[in-house]
Amino acid sequence: MSPRNFGLLLTLYAALAGVLRGLGLNVPVFKVPFLGGETAGWILSVLFFLVGLWLLISGSRDWQLSPLTLKQIRRFRSIKQGYWSFLILLALTGVAMLDNLLVGRRALAVKYEGQLYLPFIQDGIIPGSKFGLGYEAETDYRELRKLFQKENKGNWVVLPLIPFAPSQDSPDVIEVLEKRGDGKYYRQGIDEPFSGRAYTSFKEKPTQKRREYTLRYGVFQGEMRGWDAKGEQNERGKYQDGKRTTYTDYQNGAGEALETQASPDLQAQIFPPAAPSWHNGHFLGTSSSGGDILATLFGGWQQALLASVLYVTFVFVAGVVVGGVSGYFGGLTDLLGQRILEIWAALPFLFVVMIVSSLIEPRLLILVGIIAFFGWKGVASYIRTETLREKARDYVAAAKLTGASTGRILFKHVLPNTISVLVTLAPFEVTGIITSLAALDFLGFGLPPDEPSWGRLLQEGTENFNYPWIVASAFAAMVIVLVLVTFVGEAIREAFDPKKFTTYR
Q1: What are phi and psi of 5, to 5 degrees?
Q2: Which residues make Cβ contacts (< 8 Å) with residue 231, sequence separation at least 6?
Q3: pLDDT value at position 316?
């Protein structure tokens, strides 16, 4: 793809993302810039649009890469570990862009009485009354699918592969217990007999409890209570080792008669955190708040991608401007620049974050801005060093002798020869922002609780190791991503090593 075509593609993407957002449509891929909030979304859209427009206007028909750059790319591709890590990260980025096409509580499609609905692209809600449910709140599509399957009237619901939202989605986990050959009740897929409370419900009103039992090691043990269809208690009893020992009917036999209206299934509510279960659709289990861990990891990966793009843009722009000006002009400018860097380095980063977190709700853009506010110093130092070295080269002196302006020397000669430093630094800046965000969330100074976060999962998991699937999932996700990015960074560093490939001609 040529630079112009890439610029055209980027411009169209940014324009469509803005237009669709303005129309209130959450189309997957195009809603990705807005996952970090409205402000961050519009900043990213404008940034993509400007970069695309610049490539479209000033870009060439073909990539005019120098022999040196081609040699560096070939060297990068020859380092299999880094090259394959790069491809895997690209694939994971593509998966993240699919967004609510893969992960979300809204249905992809609903067919009801011959009419087709696409709830996942709508910004507003569709009330339950639209599908014949008795409420005006947003439709619970998971329950709607069960209802349609039970009614079997030709209506259907298509849900995403992971039908849970990354945040603010903690549905009750209800399991049907199975009675095995030994006469005891078990949770599906679990070998240990069930202990806890379980209940039956009315066939016509599945949400209304009929009887509630206490089970110990898979048998009835303790109190039993029963209710009629109006929710009034009508019976009570006690069980010992699975046998009923006492029984009281408050409605003169009406309680036992209601058993014909009850479902034979014995159900149990599983309180969070719940272990991984294919039967419930929680493939990696749930967190302490009841959220699906796989959906949370997906949302955390999207946040990490957005934060990386914003952070690298901020620190590179600030670092190149300050380091380039300081290194090229030298003298008093360089002296002032160095003193500013020293003062900046002495500012207490963590205290500033704590103060900001106590004053306002720290959204993603604010956190990235604060971290970037303290993170550009390293890039500025590297660029200053490179600029000092490049300006002493003969080609810069030759450019001055031919009358080239300062801007031309900086942007056409010096800056392109420092690009290798930025390319080498980029993967390590990405690992830095991912670990910084996770650390702030772990300490409780990061994103608000309604946002998906890897750091918060780590914090939940380390608070109680009785639920190892929480900490193991978050730890594995972070390790995999950081190792892949580090492999890419090491490969780039080796491919752009100036000891092997000099940029000077």
Answers
A1: -65, -40
A2: 208
A3: 92
Q: Are 439 and 432 contacting, i.e. CB atoms less than 8 angstroms apart? A: no
Q: Which residues contact 481 (CB under 8 A, 6 or more apart)?
A: 89, 92, 301, 304, 434
In which residue are the tokens 């492999």 written?
A: 487
In three-state secondary structure terms, 427 is helix
What is the spatial distance between Cα 454 and Cα 460, in angstroms, rounded to a whole number? 10
CB atoms within 10 A of CB 295: 27
Element counts in the chain: helices (H) and strands (E): 16, 12
Q: How far apart are CA 393 and CA 65, in angstroms?
A: 22
Residues facing 286 on adjacent strands: 292
CA-CA-CA-CA torsion sign (390, 394, 399, 405): positive
Cα–Cα dist 187/191, whole Å = 8
Q: What are φ and ψ of residue 126, in 5° steps?
A: -110, 115
CA distance 40 to 34: 6
Place of tokens 């998906």: 452
What burial class does residue 234 get, using C-beta atoms within 10 Å of its C-beta: 0-12 exposed, 13-18 middle, 19+ buried?
Answer: buried
What is 29-52 written as a DSSP string? TTTGGGTT-HHHHHHHHHHHHHHH
- DSSP 8-state secondary structure symbol assigned to residue 193: B
* Tokens found for residue 74: 């070939």
DSSP letter assigned to residue 25: B
**Residue 336 in 3-state DSSP?**
helix
What distance in Å separates the CA atoms of residue 282 and residue 160, rounded to the nearest whole number?
13
Q: State how far the Cα of 233 lies from the Cα of 99, in Å rounded to an integer.
A: 46
pLDDT band at 505 (very low <50, low <70, confident <90, very high): very low
Q: Which long-range contacts (CB under 8 A, 24 or more apart) does 195-198 make?
A: 196/268, 197/268, 197/269, 198/266, 198/267, 198/268
Residue pLDDT, tens place only, 280-332: 788 998 888 888 999 999 999 999 998 998 899 899 999 999 988 888 888 88
DSSP 8-state secondary structure symbol assigned to residue 192: S
What is the distance between the alpha carbons of residues 341 and 347, in angstroms, rounded to a whole number? 10
Q: Checking phi first, is residue 67 left (phi over 0); if not, alpha (psi -120 to 50) or beta? A: alpha
Q: Edge-to-edge strands of the sheet including 173-176?
A: 173-176, 267-270, 196-201, 209-216, 219-227, 233-240, 243-249
Helix (H, G, I), strand (E, B) or coil at 109: strand
Alpha-carbon distance of 186 to 195, in angstroms, equals 9
CA dist 420 to 72, 81, 383, 496, Å?
Answer: 10, 20, 10, 6
Write the single-letter amino acid at 349: F
User: Six-digit token pair at 92?
Assistant: 């994971």
